[in-house]
Structures are given as C-alpha cells and as structure tokens.
Amino acid sequence: MSDELALSTVEREAGIVRCDACPVLCRIRPGRAGACDRYANEAGKLVRVDPLVLLAKPDLARVAFIEGSDAWRGELGKGEGAFVTGIGATTTYPDYKPAPFIVSSKPEGADMVTVVTEGIFSYCGVKVKIDTDRYLGPEQATVRVAGEAVGHVTTAEYGSQMLSLGGVHHLTGGSKKEGVVTCASLLALCNREAVELAIDGGARVVVQADKPPVVNGVPEERMRVGCGSAAIGMFAPQWKDHVDEVIVVDDHITGVLTEHQGGRFLDMKPTGIRVRGRKSTPGRYFQVAAPGLGWGGTELADPLQIIEKIDGKQAWPGLRLLMVSTTGEHAAWFELDHQLKPQPGDMPAAVRKVVERIAENCEPALSTVLFMAGAGGSLRAGVTENPVRLTHSVRESLTKVTLGGVPAYVWPGGGITLMVDVAKMPEKSFGYVPTPALVAPIEFTLRADDYAALGGYASRAVTLEDVLARHRVRLDETNQ
Ligand code: SF4
User: Fold this and answer.
1) Ligand 1: residue whose CA is nearest its atom 4
2) Who is most buried in 82, 184, 348, 456, counting CB within 10 A?
C-alpha cells in the first residue's frame, strides 16, 4: 500500500477506515459516511451503504438464440429469475481491479456471465427533451442552475425543445462551483427529481424525467400534433364544409388552408388573406412572428397580428376564418365585416369539434432525460485485461450493455458511448463522487466462452446464489 493510502497508527487506533473506491480516498470515522454518502464505516469495516439491487423479473435472465443453433443473437429475452444490477454493486478504483461482481448464469443451457459494477463517469451528461411549443430560449443559450452554467439549448425537434446538460467541460472545465452544481443537477435529473433550469434570454423551466415540464410556472399539457402545415394536411377535409379559411399559427411553419396543397386538393376558393413572414411553399410560412410563450410558440397574444393584409379582390364580407394553434390550446373564430375586417364571433360547434380533435391528437407533454456517458475508458479494465476487446465485443453485439438492467443504446463509432432513459431505471440508480463525477450502474452480459476469449476474469465468476448468500440485496419490481 502506498504512503498516501496508508492510515497512521493514530487513525487506525481511532477505528478510521480508508475508502479507495474513488480518487477522493476518504478517511472515514466509525459510524460516519464518506464524502459521497455511498460508503460508511460500520464498526471499523468499510461498507457500501445501499443494498445491491436485483431486478425481480428482468429482461436479462434469458437470452435469445439464433433459431436452430446455440449462437446468441446478442439480444436479451424475457424470463424469470433475478438479475444483478450495478446499483449498490460498489466501484473499482483504479479500474484494473476486476469488477465487483461477475455473475454466471445458465439461461436455456448456455453459460453466460454478467459483469456488474458501478462506473464513475467524468464524461457524462444528459440530453433533455421537453415536449413544448413554447419558446425556451435561443439555440446555444446557456442553461443555468443557481446561476452556474450547466449546459445549453440545442436544436429543437418536432414538437420538443432540446437541452444538452453536463458534459466534461461543465464538470471539470469551469470553476469548482460550476462543477459541483453541474454534478448535483445531473444527479437529481438522473434520479428523476425535479430541477429548475434558467435559460439565458429565455424561460425558466422545471424538468423532471417522465413528468410534464413547467415553463415559467405553467405546467405544459400537450405536445403539438405537428407543425402548422402538418395540421392543415391532417384536418383539411374536416374543416372544408365549415370554414372559408384556417390559419394554423406556428412559430416554425404557419399553415394557410386555401393556399396550402391540402386546401387546393379540396378545391377550396382562395380568400386573399395574406400572412406575414417568409413564404416557403404555397400555404406554408416561416417566421410569422418572434418566438415566445403565446400562440403556437410565437410571442403573440392576438393571432390577428400575423395577418399582413386582406385582398379585397378575393375576400368577401361574411368570410369565415378560424385561427388555431398547433395544440388546439389557442383557437379563435372570426367573420369579415363589410370593411373586410375580422370580427370575433362564436365558433360553430362543427368547427369546435375539429379544434378539439387537434387537442385530442396531441400526446401528453413530458420531459425525457437520457443519461449519456462514455464507458469506453478505463472502466473496461475492470471487465477484461484487454479493454479494446470489450469494445469490439459490444460493437459485434456479442456483449449487451445495460444500466440498472435497462438496455443502453450504444453509439456507432469508437468507444462505448451510450444513452439510456433514466425513467426506465430503478429508483435512485445514480450516485456521485466529489471529483466531481456521476456514478451509474453498468452491466455487461455475454457468453462465458466469449468472456474468456476477450481476456475476462472468468475464474472470479460467482452464481446468483453466492451473491444472495453474501450480500444485502433489494429486489426492485418497478418497471418490470
Ligand atoms: S467519495 Fe465516496 S467513493 Fe470516493 S473515497 Fe469517499 S466514500 Fe469512497
């Protein structure tokens, strides 16, 4: 043991133990926990505070084989039994020590092993998908927690705003406080807790995995049915007999029914109502207004503001105009008076029904939190003496990677860069160390002979019964 790791005689006599599960190397007094609260000193013995988590009816107890052969397809099948997750498994540090658990099993007669550990991820973050049309902030804007930069706004998706949070630059590249706040925010998000995020030049949004986002204090209810143009395409036939014109107000693509291919196809008569913005193709307009928290993700409280002019050669008194947003949350009915000015009126029941159908076709708005991390570094050394072979084995689908028993998406290309939906993982799957970094469970499942071939620690494999006999466990039945 190096001098740095060794305890002094006084410390030993005081019953202090050294935790070497991460580079912080805590000296822990009797009855106390280390800096991350994951390890404690119980009567002079270093223990992992949380029990090892087993999944009750895992997808992993059985594996799928190519029909008519004993070759594994690299897929995990349904089955009975228990699966040992990395939650509470303890960490190896430095990583070249074998993983804490190498569990053998024999599903459908094939010898399999699952290598189980808690990985310490300095290179990690979350991708957050927020189902809302409301403008959260400009792309690339900084996202803050308690005033510290923890990420940025990235490209919007179809009906969702996206944030990229964490990552090595915020964890290690800024001030100590920035790293600490980033780590705490990631930990809370990954453990499915609510976190309030402030976006520079934009909104404040409360995000919690698998729960509706709250934008500037207002819970979001609906995810848009599509863009303004798509809404026209979907509902044009249902509007045709009840309206003369429909404008679907959308920050991205506003749709104008009679100009749009959807209206023309139904032989609808042009109304001469022109909207602001840049025309893309007939009946499809970009940038009709600045983005904001109003109609269709624009800043507008009054939709009539997007009407640039009404052409007297085509429009007529009594023309019936519906204006609606992409979620149906905002809708207004107008008729043109003798000066061809839109006057608000009561929406006919048949039109209201279609507006309600827009809302009905919206899905509930949720926040989704995907944990993303690189497991391609030294963590692999706890699995095999020849780490690159593990990467190759994952690439060839011979090794299945799971986090807390949930199959991870592994990015193509180099390394083992993975993503997983935290909402599917057992509760409190994540921890942290003050380096700062997140601690996440990770399991590698593969055939025993493949494991031996890639230089694994096959001789250390134990059975599930051995694990149950020697460790405090918790059976998790959520999400099963
Ligand atoms: S921070 Fe946690 S894992 Fe790291 S040495 Fe301290 S108790 Fe051990």
Assistant:
1) 22
2) 456
Domain residues for 181? 125-219
- Name residue 279's amino acid: K
Q: Is the CB of 437 under 6 A from ligand 1?
A: no
Q: What is the pLDDT of residues 42-71, one digit of tens each?
A: 999 999 999 999 887 554 444 445 555 555
Ligand 1 site, residue 22, Cβ cutoff 6 A: yes
Of 190, 219, 248, the one marking the end of a domain is: 219
For residue 1, being part of any structural domain is answered with no
Would 26 be classed as within a structural domain? Answer: yes
Nearest atom in ligand 1 to 434's CA: 1
Each residue's pLDDT tens digit, 432-463: 999 999 999 999 999 999 999 999 998 899 98
The alpha carbon of 193 and the centre of ligand 1 are apart by a number of angstroms equal to: 23
For residues 267-292, give the mean pLDDT: 96
**Do 71 and 135 fall within a single domain?**
no
- Asked if residue 34 has its Cβ within 6 Å of ligand 1, the reply is yes
Answer with the residue of higher pLDDT: 68 or 22.
22
pLDDT of residue 4: 58
pLDDT confidence of 13, banded at 50, 70, 90?
Answer: confident
Name which of 368, 373, 477, 366 is nearest 430 in CA terms. Answer: 373
Q: Ligand 1 centroid to 95 CA: how many Å?
A: 14
b/e sequence 256-272, b meaning 16+ C-beta within 10 Å: bbbbbebbeeeebebbb
Q: Are residues 359 and 236 in the same domain?
A: yes
Atom of ligand 1 nearest to the CA of 38: 2
Q: Is residue 3 one of the residues assigned to a domain?
A: no
- What would the mean pLDDT of 381-397 be, rounded to a whole number? 89
* Co-location of 142 and 197 in the same domain: yes
Q: Let me know: does 372 contact 417? Beta carbons within 8 Å.
A: yes
**Together in a domain, 243 and 326:** yes
Question: Following DSSP, what letter does each residue of 180-229 receive, concatenated?
Answer: HHHHHHHHHHHTT--EEEEETTS-EEEE-TTS--EETTEE--EE-SS-HH
Q: How far is the CA of 432 from the centre of ligand 1 (A)?
A: 9
Answer yes or no: is the C-beta of 39 below 6 A from any ligand 1 atom: yes
Average pLDDT over residues 188-200: 98
